[in-house]
Amino acid sequence: MGSTSPYKAVGLSNKEKAYVICSCQSRSSRYAELKRVALQAIEENKIFSINGNCSAIRKALLERGWIEKMPPNRMNLSKIRNGTFRNKTEIHEELERILLSNFVEKCQPDFIWYVKDEPFGVGATLIDMTDLDTAKECNTIINKIKSDAMWTSKQGLCSSINRNYWFYIEDVAEVNGPRTYNSYDAGEIEGFVKDYKITACTSLLKWALSMASNERPVFVKSGKISIKVLVFALNRCKEYLFRKQHKDIDHSLSTTSSAHWNAFLKKYYRIIAKQDVFQEDKNNKLPLYLSYAKCLLREIHKYRPQLSCEGCHNIWIIKPAHCSRGRGIRMASKLGVITDILNKANSKYVIQKYIEEPLLVHETKFDIRQYYLVTSTFPLVIWMYKDCYLKFSSQKYSLKNYHEAIHLTNYAVQRNYKNCEGRHAELPQNNMWDSEMYKHYLKKIGKRKLWDRVIYPGMKKSIVGIMLSCQDSLTTSKNRFELYGCDFILDKDYKPWLIEINSCPDMRNSTPITAKICPAVLADIIKVVVDYARDSQASTGKFECVYRQSVMHIPRYGVSDMFVRGYSLPLDYFYRGNIEVKESYDAVIEKERDITAMLRKLKGFYDPDIFVPLDDDDVISASSPNSKKDDTINDNTNCDHNTGSENELALAATVITEQLDEIVDRNTSDNSFTLKLDKKMDANTTHSSKKHKHMVKRMQSVTDIKTLLESTCTSRFASCETVSIKQKFNFSELDDGPQGKGSFEQFDPIKKMYEKLTTTIDFKKAQHSKAKQLGNNNDLKETRNELMDATSKMISFINQKEKEYLRQFL
């Protein structure tokens, strides 16, 4: 070992090795057994190394048959020489432990646990973590994740919280943290100043509402503060909402000078700190101001959730970025004091809005220490420990004094102070409760269900959310895991707020509570990273997997898979001769592309809101020679222009008939009377009526017949304006009814049915019971049959006319 080694001892000397071996060889059977155990551990990859004092991890691994490879600085006989062991049994156990470590001296550990971010000893040399990361086929399990401290440092956590909205997942990932700013970023300092000023405005409004609701005299004749100060705060809150709602784009907002802000802050300090009051409201506008203030605060709370627990004193907490255990933390409520601290500081600070109205237990502040474990970074896997503990302050909570003994609940701080006089008897003397004690307290005050419904799920969502926001800064490291300890504060609604996250949390047995929880946490870590990793059915103790990121496996394609394969088109696909103009229905429809072209022409003559093209399956079915004709096609349709394909006529009739179906559906009223056909058709029902049975079923109101005719007769080549039915048609020479050209006598049965039904039945006012009674009447059955026959004739007439007029214009 070179002179730069931080360790004084580098292992056993030759004499010490000889002494250890001789001591064990004197019991030849035990020496052989130890050698066999060492060889078995090497074959099963059960060699571990611990840098630091962590007896819980050592005990858990030894129980599983692992062998410890001791670091060089601990590989000596100092404990035996110093008389640490009291009897020969303990001395022999220490000698055997050293001998086993000597047997595996040249083997790389399969599990490494260490506490500090520094190189650790392996064998006779020092190996850094980077060496293990770059090593090929490294299967060593290490309790440290490579990261840039994006969430375990104060400034890193600040940045992660500020950008967490990109990683929000409802009911899964949602971070609730106080508003925080980094002092080393000039832009964030400017943002903090703006935040401080708006917070002063909202604090003043909250104070006024609170005092008025408690009937405190704050608007009196002897008041020294003008009510215009309250109006100033209202206007600034209104402008804040305009900016958040992006209404400042259309409304020019007035700019407030620094002089006005300074004057306002001075009056605000006098009201909050010196308890000054406002002047009397001479114009009697106070009720209006207070109502407006309540409305503004309710809207601002949507953008500033911390408004519900940040109080009225505008207190901020200033934390050194690189200190721990509560060292260097200060609190201040005046903007000038905070800026002076930041300007005079030589190091980086984090400014965080203080939660002035936390949840208290017997007038005492507390926070919750929650442990969680990350066993994979890509995909992200997070385990949360079900047990946690509470850390109490030693003094009663008060905002009149900013002493650390009142506001900082760190055990490293509170152990320096005695508990205050008059402290509630139920509070612990060592200032700690485990989660079971707190659940018992919640049950006592009637809030037992809040732990499972609000507190624990809230902490879980914050942990998942903060890890997702920092996942991009992590590297994909194999066999890495790490334990973290985070602190939460509850507000009056029992909602947890994330305050801090610590890597390498202190797991020492400082109190009876930590002496019970910390060893259990460490033992359960081995269950997760060792037992569960080898057997998915193994127990994980009290660790619960709260998030397991799903991974999409993208298949990898080779170069051969990137070729494009195709087939050449037949020569008859390309037409090179002269195009002969024919009527649309003279073409023989045999191929799919011909049908598609014809439908494209049909669509040009119909209203696009009415025309609905057929699906590909329907087109192919209609063009297939083996397909059956649609039942809606009238076989008796007469036409003087005979075409070469009956499929073409069937297709056109199908298109028109389907559009009639759609028109009837769209024109049907919700309150119309529904006609239901009998299951068996009357013997005198015509063949045409049977063909169009499904059309009559879909007609839900006789009163829609006139609308049906007007909608169906509309064509693109007629006037776009609404005209009568006769104006819509330009009748051809073929139209020659009993009353002359353009006769509508074929519709007389429908007109008669319409008049008969409308005089006997009030469709809009008839109730369901009346409709049912009428449906069973024989007269109504006869009427339905007549209506069905007349409707079939009408549809046949429309089909015939549509075909004829299409021929004239195509």
Automatic annotation (TrEMBL):
The UniProt record lists the keyword ATP-binding: yes
Organism of derivation: Loxostege sticticalis (Beet webworm moth)
Gene3D superfamilies assigned: ATP-grasp fold, B domain
InterPro entries the UniProt entry points to: TTL/TTLL_fam, TTLL_monoglycylase
Cellular compartments annotated: Cytoplasm
One Pfam family matching this protein: TTL
Keywords: ATP-binding, Cytoplasm, Ligase, Nucleotide-binding
Name this polypeptide is given: Tubulin glycylase 3A-like
